Amino acid sequence: MAEVTFWGATGQVTGSCYLVRTGNATVLLECGLVQGSREDEEANSKPFPFDVGRIDAVVLSHAHLDHSGRIPRLVKDGFSGPIYMTDATGDLLEVMLKDAAFLAERDAEWENKRLRRAGRAEIPPLYTVDDVELALAQCEGVAYHERRQVADGIEVYFRDAGHILGSAIVELLVRDGGETRRLVFSGDLGNSCAALLRDPEAVGEADVLLLESTYGDRDHRPLDATLEEFEDTFKQAQQSGGNVLIPAFAVGRTQEIIFRLGELYQRGALQQGVVFLDSPMAIAATEIYHRYQRMFNAEDSAQLRRTRSPTLHSFLPPLRYSRTAEESMAINRVSEGAIIVAGSGMCTGGRIRHHLKHNLWRREAHVIIVGFQAIGTPGRALVDGARHLTLAGEEIVVKATVHTIGGFSAHAGQSQLLDWANGFGTRRPRLYLVHGEPDKRAALREQFASRYQWDAALPAYGESVRL
Fold it and tell me: Which has the closest alpha carbon to 260: 336, 316, 322, 339?
């Protein structure tokens, strides 16, 4: 009997991983990194809880590392089959996994220096750039709305999820023992108010539905209020004379922020003279977005055409790319009047930490939090009102003004999740809520019960259910 086992993103947002098995085939749906505190991330180095050698194929919903980031480790441990995703996801995946491998090798090198000094055994990196190259060679692109057999008796079908470029709602058609079952995984559903991308597509039929619940407890602020607050923050910063720091995920959130800054510039509402995009990965991702502009929604595409701006860069003329470490360090000599967009989105690494170190202690500085912040991350500490933050071993007092603007989320809010799932109509699938912290999953479960009398299960790590 076909079954799915939940090996990640149960009771937490990251670490997406689900194993689909029949009598004839095994397909891994997602293979994501666990992200958050140092203790949480130690799970990434542990052996996989299943036999890697028995997996016939991997299917990915999109390129974010919490969905894809352990694929090179899977390959390193012996997986040699195909990895299926949309073409745009494949392009973004190359950028993201190579960056992740570089960071893994660097972190292992630093840690091994400490271990050698202590006379202890060295540790290998989670994976290397060579492992990434092997994994990328196994990737195969599948277009939206194209049905593709990925293993014996298992077919995949992708619909646009509207979360980031190339993101997909995954449908697996599973045949086993003379029966056919339809498993639908929402992936990360997009926020219909987000810029550039299209709304998530409706799905009308499934036997089993795995639904994300990242924002299962609340709706986002209305877009008009969000954009008004966003604009007001830059007015405040202009008056105080300080820099504006925006920690942003390199793929998806950065491109949204650039577009919104471009809108302000185009109508004369952005007074800051320079905007730095300080992230090689975000720069590479933005250039990939340029190549796939045919996938933008009609309204934003029309706005780019009206302003004769063929790229996001030309839509925001003050934008400056900082590709090298030297260019990044030069930004820290700018003490006022700049907007600095840098990764990582949760402030767990990347160049944003250096800019926070140089600006958090300044009363005139502003920090805009525009994305989800997992428990245990520095970004979450800022959202929760921390008055001190430890960065690179140094304690920094937080005197900057911290703004949390939730309306830019690339995830659907509670009402959007409920409305999308209600598209299945009266023939409701068995529902399992994943990708949410415990209180978020529980809140969404209550809403399904009260609004639709629909029972949603909260699967546990390692739990298996029949399709």
Answer: 316
The helices-and-strands tally (H runs, E runs) of the chain is 15, 22
Domain boundary among 408, 426, 450: 408
Is 446 in the same domain as 401? no
At 283-328, the pLDDT tens digits run 999 999 999 999 999 999 999 988 887 788 889 999 999 999 999 9
Starting from the edge strand earliest in sequence, which strands make up the sheet with 154-160, in order?
148-151, 154-160, 168-176, 179-185, 208-212, 430-434, 456-457
The parent domain of residue 292 ranges over 223-408
Tokens of 6: 């939940």
* Residue 53: CB atoms within 10 Å: 11
In Å, what is the CA distance from 283 to each residue of 48, 252, 320, 341?
Answer: 33, 12, 10, 11
CA–CA separation, 6 vs 388, rounded Å? 37
Going by pLDDT thresholds of 50, 70 and 90, the confidence category of residue 335 is: low
User: What CATH number does residue 192 fall under?
Assistant: 3.60.15.10
Length in residues, the chain:
467
Q: Are 295 and 198 a contacting pair, CB within 8 Å?
A: yes
Give the Cβ contact number of residue 463 at 10 Å.
Answer: 14
In terms of domains, do 379 and 441 share one? no
Would you state the structure tokens that stand for residue 249, as one six-digit string?
């995920």
Q: Which residue type does 388 have?
A: H
- Phi, psi (rounded to 5 degrees) for 117: -65, -30
- What does the alpha-carbon distance between residue 162 and residue 354 come to, in Å, rounded to a whole number? 32
User: What is the DSSP-derived secondary structure letter of residue 42?
Assistant: G
The mean pLDDT value of the chain amounts to 93
Is the same domain home to 457 and 351?
Answer: no
- How many other β-carbons are positioned within 10 Å of the β-carbon of residue 445? 20
Give the predicted TM-score (pTM) of the model.
0.91
Which of 386, 408, 430 is the last residue in one of the domains? Answer: 408
Give me the number of domains the chain comprises: 2
Instruction: Mark whether 110 and 165 lie in a shared domain.
Output: yes
